[in-house]
Amino acid sequence: MPNSSPPMPTPAELELLRVLWERGPSTVREVQTAVGADTTGYTTILKQLQLMLEKGLVSRDESQRAHVYEARVDASITQRQLVDDLVERAFGGATDKLVLRALSSERVTADELRAIRDLLDALDDED
Amino acid sequence: MPNSSPPMPTPAELELLRVLWERGPSTVREVQTAVGADTTGYTTILKQLQLMLEKGLVSRDESQRAHVYEARVDASITQRQLVDDLVERAFGGATDKLVLRALSSERVTADELRAIRDLLDALDDED
DNA sequence: ACAAACATACGAAAAGTTTCGTATGTGCAA
DNA sequence: TTGCACATACGAAACTTTTCGTATGTTTGT
């Protein structure tokens, strides 16, 4: 009886999820290599993934000696969860405030702005 | 010698900052009332504000018996700091991805979309 | 067969965050 | 003046998150 939907990932967990999203199913060793083998010990990654397994954030295939871990939560859903959380905590629920803040921050390229405008247009057409 | 710029606020600290941003300079009691006197003990708020003082997130006026705390960091700067942090951790630095994710989330009203479009136009005119 | 390399499990230290209890001081009203 | 309401200071408990050490088992190359 899986209790409910998995909890929001912690920062360290998010980093590992991002590896799994990008690489697909991976062994502990592969994940460690991806995050930089010198920055974090092997057993640290292992333990982290084991915790994530308990939380339902990942699943694993134990058919091989080196277990293969796979993300159990969507990138899109998790990202929205994180964004919504920040919107709530920092902007009192006003999504547009967050967007405005993000856009007025530097390092948004012209291409990115165009992508956003396209989405706005698409949203308009929906109604 | 203030070391450098204040660190990013933790979630609990952010909640208190939001009260100070909205109310302006406030006593511990006032802050506690604002966050809901029943949810968090008085000394908890007090201690939190004392820690925030050490971190440079707030300043205080001790001329009265009940010290008056004031935010030392801008809402806009702090919010951008938090957004940038999330962009980095969850979207690999791609600000537009975060924006797209935020916008495709429900609960963005037509008014909010208009505000965003206006900003896009303003950004265009800048160059 | 045996040592070296590599894998998991798991307890627990280390570090960070949040909450509160207790000691203590000060102003004020009966 | 005496006691009550209310304030700060501060240590430390309670949690959460992150990191690692150690025990132990399995595979592989010589």
pLDDT averaged over residues of chain A: 93
Work out the largest interface and the residue count of each chain.
A-B, 43 and 43 residues
Order of helices and strands of chain A: HEHHEEHHH
CATH superfamily of the largest domain in chain A: Winged helix-like DNA-binding domain superfamily/Winged helix DNA-binding domain
Count of domains of chain A:
2
Rg of chain A (CA only) = 18 Å
Quaternary organisation of the protein chains = homodimer
Please state the overall shape of chain A, judged from the principal axes of the Cα atoms: elongated
> Total number of helical segments of chain A?
6
Task: Describe the 3D structure.
Two copies of one chain form a homodimer. With 127 residues, chain A is mainly alpha-helical. Chain A has two domains: 11-71, Orthogonal Bundle (Arc Repressor Mutant, subunit A); 75-126. In chain A, 62% of the residues lie in helices and 8% in strands. Chain A contains six helices and three strands. Chain A has a three-stranded antiparallel sheet. The longest helix of chain A is centred in the middle third of the chain and has 17 residues, at 75-91. Chain A is elongated and about 50 Å long. The model of chain A has no long low-confidence stretch (mean pLDDT 93). Chain A binds a DNA duplex (30 and 30 nucleotides) through helix 1 and helix 3.
Give the tags.
homodimer, 127 residues, mainly alpha, Arc Repressor Mutant, subunit A, 2 domains, three-stranded antiparallel sheet, 3 strands, elongated, DNA-binding
